[in-house]
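INTERNAL AUDIT FORM
Audit reference: QA-55
Scope: verify that the stored structure record matches its stored sequence.
Auditor: D.O.
Record contents follow.
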Amino acid sequence: MGLVINREIEDGSRIGLWEITEEYETLLGMTYLNDEDLTRLNSFRCLNRKMESLSVRALLQQMTRPDACIVYHKQSNKPFLYDGSYNISISHSNKYTSIILGKNKLVGIDIEYMSHRIERVAHKFINELDVITDNHHRRAHLYIHWCAKEALFKICDKIDLNFQEDITIQPFEVAEQGYITGVVRLNSRYEKYRLRYQIMDNYVWVYCSK
C-alpha cells in the first residue's frame, strides 16, 4: 500500500500516513539513505524496528525533500529534522506510520491499534476530570483519550509533565472523526489545545498543532 495520506491541513501543517505492506528489501530500495543512515539502520536488531525506520524515511520523502529527511532525536527522544525546515512528530502502531510536520507550529501526533488491553492500563492515564460517558463505545473513548494525551505530551516536550495528572481531555461524544479539546497544566497556568481525531480500520489517529 505505501502512502495512504499526504495532505495539508487547515493551519498549514502537513500530515502523512504510511501503511507498511512492503518487504524489507523493497522498502529499503524506495528510500534515500546516506552512509550514516545505513549505519544507524543496521544497528537495529529487530526487523520491525528497521521497517519502522524505513517507513518514516519513505513517508518523509513524499512529504518533503529527500535530502531533508535526516531525523535526529533529543535526549527526551523528541525527533527533529537535521535541516530544521519543519517541526516534526512521529508515531507507529503495527502496520502504520504517521507523521505531522509544522513549518511554524509545534506539532504532536499519535496512532494506536485498538486492542482490548486498554482497560487494564486506563488507571494509568485517566484522571478524575477525564469523563468517559459513552460505555457503548468505551474502548474507542479510552483510545482517543490515550492518543490525545500522547500527542499533547509530544507537543509540549516537557520531561516533568505528568501524563496522567497534567493533561485532561474535555468531555466529547465518540464519532468516526471529529475535534476534541485538551487542557495541559504547565506549572501554574493552563493551555488549551484543539485536536483532530479519526477512527479507521480499528486504529485511532489523533494530531494537533499550536
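Auditor finding: record pair retrieved intact. The chain has two domains: 2-104, 111-209.
Action required: none
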